[in-house]
Amino acid sequence: MCENLKVVRLFDPWKSQLCSCPVKYSLNPYTGCGHGCLYCYVSYVPKFFNPRTKKDLIRFMELDMRKVEKGAIISISNSSDPYQPIEADYGESRKVLEALTKYSVRILIITKSAMILKDLDIFRKLKSAVMLTVTTLKNDLAQRLEPFASPPFKRLYALEKLVENGIPCGVRIDPIIPCINEEEVEEIVKEAKARGASHVTSSTYKARKHNFIRIVREFPQISKKLRKLYLENGQWIRGTLYAPEEIRREIMERTRDACAKYQMTFSTCREGFYDLNNSESCDGSHLINQKNPR
Ligand code: SF4
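Above: inputs. Below: predicted complex with iron/sulfur cluster.
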């Protein structure tokens, strides 16, 4: 793996020992993200919710790509959404993808926006797979949790269109927040399967001060339960508060069982429950080489 890169970075999420991702790179076309998700883990970065472009992004990317080995996985993106609203004005994600068509690499897109459909023509030229994040099917809840991302029905529509166009897709049910969206898991799996997704990656919510404050402010009626779960009984893992292990495991087992019911592969993300995973990769990158099931 290459080091001394400027914008195509080695993926190493807070050096988490619980990350079981394959070796890959991460490329964020924007600094910050305008989706404004309450639970966002990256939003400790100053002005994170005021996204901006990166100076000379494509030039630096081209320089980095000279060092990146053939066949490498590039994940776009892990610390911002490539199809956040600003993309409609600047099209930096499209420019990045267009430039990447020259290289023999594999692209994994992670998004919660239906804007991805504008780039279908480029995905057909790339070895790629898409992970659509769907945390709820309820418009009103999505509006509170992820105020500027696409509503759930639009994400599901995008999923269906991507699959129809031969792009392998999975879904991230991520994060599952106790008392907020945990009861919807099976329904999300069912809807994702109906639209052609073949894999689910999931995790429980991990509390950091900045995101926990936003969540309990928005959902005061469950703040007592969340405080008990995380602040009183939670477990610190590398600077992040996890819910108690037995509760996380129960939620992840339920999610795995729902995936088994609808014949989808399943993996957990940074939970440490490797025994529950039944897919080749935990992040959906194995889908890149797969033929679309439809
Ligand atoms: S889409 Fe991802 S990076 Fe953007 S605000 Fe939401 S959680 Fe944060």
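The domain at 8-289 is CATH 3.80.30.30 (pyruvate-formate lyase- activating enzyme).
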